[in-house]
Amino acid sequence: MASRGGPRAAGTDGSDFQHRERVASHYQMSVTLKSEIKKLIYTHVVIWLLLLAQMCVGHLKLLPHDQVAMPYQWEYPYLLSILPSLLGLLSFPRNNISYLVLSMISTGLFSVAPLIYGAMEMFPMAQQLYRHGKAYRFIFGFSAVSVMYLVVVVAAQVHGWQLYYSKKLLDSWFTSTQEKKKK
After folding, report:
1. Residue 12 banded pLDDT, cuts 50, 70, 90
2. CB 138 within 8 A of CB 144
3. What percent of the chain has pLDDT over 70?
4. Is position 101 within any domain?
5. Where residue 68 falls among pLDDT bands split at 50, 70, 90?
6. CA 131, 133, 138, 139 torsion: positive or negative?
7. Are 59 and 69 in contact (CB under 8 A)?
8. How many distinct structural domains can be found in the chain?
9. Where, by residue number, does the polypeptide cross the bilayer (predicted)?
10. Residue 11 resides in a domain
11. Cα angle for residues 68, 69, 70 (degrees, 5° grid)
């Protein structure tokens, strides 16, 4: 390498610094995964707000019952699903592994479990709609069970990808932690 005032080292033209300017792959992966998880969390917040609005409108009777149906039982515990998302967001600034692990565990408990219960709770009504064409609950003219199954499918995908990316992020953080301990 070149020194400030002296000659260059033998065998170099001063352009061999490029390899030292690359960011380690696990740091690049961490930034990318955090970005993807944030997008999924914001999508989850939109779903959560829509369910909260439906519950408020249903209970406060702001619209007629034939416009917005009362919420299903699975929607109440699903409201707690905002907590894992907040834990996930709190884990990002300092790469806090324990918050991320708590977020992943509570996502299963507060997000995925109510969705599974919801799919089972609404199955008889979906079956009745499919077999007989009868729906008794409506959301703005659409069958409530159809709308809510759509919500369940989208939310399950959001939470599934969120768990997948969180696991990859956790692995990335463990890689960087192990490399720091080796030094």
Report:
1. low
2. yes
3. 81
4. yes
5. confident
6. positive
7. no
8. 1
9. 40-62, 99-118, 138-158
10. no
11. 125
Residue 38: both structure tokens together: 């944030």
Q: How far apart (Å, rounded) are the C-alpha atoms in residues 62 and 156?
A: 29
In degrees rounded to 5, what are phi and psi of residue 2? -85, 140
Residues contacting 9, CB < 8 A, separation 6+: 1, 2
Question: Any bridge partners for residue 142, and if so which?
Answer: 139
Structural domain containing residue 126 = 82-182
Which residue spans within 99-151 are E strands per DSSP? 138-139, 142-143
For residue 38, what is the enclosing H or E element?
A: helix 25-60
Total Cβ atoms within 10 A of residue 170: 18
Do residues 12 and 120 touch, judged by C-beta distance below 8 A?
A: no
pLDDT in tens, 73-131: 999 999 999 999 999 999 999 999 999 999 999 999 999 999 999 999 999 988 988 89
| Structural domain contains residue 12 | no
> Under a CB-based contact definition with an 8 Å cutoff, are residues 151 and 47 in contact?
yes
Asked whether the beta carbons of 159 and 115 are under 8 A apart, the reply is yes
Give phi and psi for 117, each to the nearest 5.
-60, -40
Examine residue 129 and state whether it is found in any structural domain, yes or no: yes
